[in-house]
Amino acid sequence: MAEKKTGPVVKDVKSELVFTKKNYQLLLISIAIVAVGFILMMGTEGNIYDFRRTLLAPIVVLAGFAFGIYAILKK
């Protein structure tokens, strides 16, 4: 007797995106925060050891990166 071989079962697969619209919005916000941090870091031709350049701008940039990680991991 011959055995009837069946092919793989094809399921109706929805093409679901990995990120939602909310994730993309949060990513754009995080990119804007990082950009603001770099603009703060540029400053003017004043003192290079200014509070804004040495402390505030790096904290803003790191906060933007942390917010970006949150935006990626949010489900």
Kindly list the characteristics that best describe this protein.
mainly alpha, DUF3098 domain-containing protein, 2 helices, DUF3098, 75 residues
Structural account:
It is a single chain. The chain is mostly helical and 75 residues long. It has helices at 21-42, 51-73.
Helix/strand layout:
Elements: H1 21-42, H2 51-73
Protein name: DUF3098 domain-containing protein
Transmembrane segments: 24-43, 55-73
InterPro entries: DUF3098 (IPR021448)
Largest sheet: none
DSSP, total strands: 0
Tally of helical runs = 2
Shape: rod-shaped
Transmembrane segments: 24-43, 55-73
Keywords: Membrane, Transmembrane, Transmembrane helix
Organism: Pedobacter kyonggii
Pfam families: DUF3098
Summarize the structure.
This protein has two helices and no strands. With 75 residues, the protein is mainly α.
